Amino acid sequence: MDKRRTNLRQQKSLVLEEVTQSLGLGRDSLKFTDSMRFETAGDGGFATEYSDLDKEVIGLLYHPEMAVGPNKVKHVLKDILSNN
């Protein structure tokens, strides 16, 4: 990270983004503007904390009943969401 070309808020945002990606949420979103995963070239914003949506997605990803594999996730996800 180039500290000379980024301010403290941008640095915090970049660290949060890297930590989030290491948790398994690797794609940015153009749909949810309050998410820290929202990214456009000209948005001018750098999220420094998770939105409620980000927290929910991370919670689902690490839910104890979450399964691995695309064929299993859809079924388990429906069960998790229906119980909450």
Mean pLDDT: 80
Low-confidence stretches: none
Helix/strand structural class: mainly alpha
- N- to C-terminal distance: 40 Å
What is the number of beta strands?
0
* Principal-axes shape call: elongated
One letter per element, helices H and strands E, the order comes to HHH
Helix content: 40-55%
Determine the number of helices (DSSP H or I, runs of at least 4 residues): 3
Instruction: Count the domains.
Output: 1
Biggest sheet details: none
The gyration radius over C-alpha positions equals 15 Å
Approximately how much beta-strand content do the residues carry?
A: under 5%
Description:
The chain is an all-alpha fold and 84 residues long. It has one domain. The chain is built from three helices and no strands. The protein is elongated and about 50 Å long. The model has no long low-confidence stretch (mean pLDDT 80).
Give a topology summary.
Layout: H1 8-22, H2 52-61, H3 70-83
Q: How do you describe this structure in short?
A:
The chain is built from three helices and no strands. The protein has one domain. It is mainly alpha-helical.
Keywords:
single chain, 84 residues, mainly alpha, 46% helix
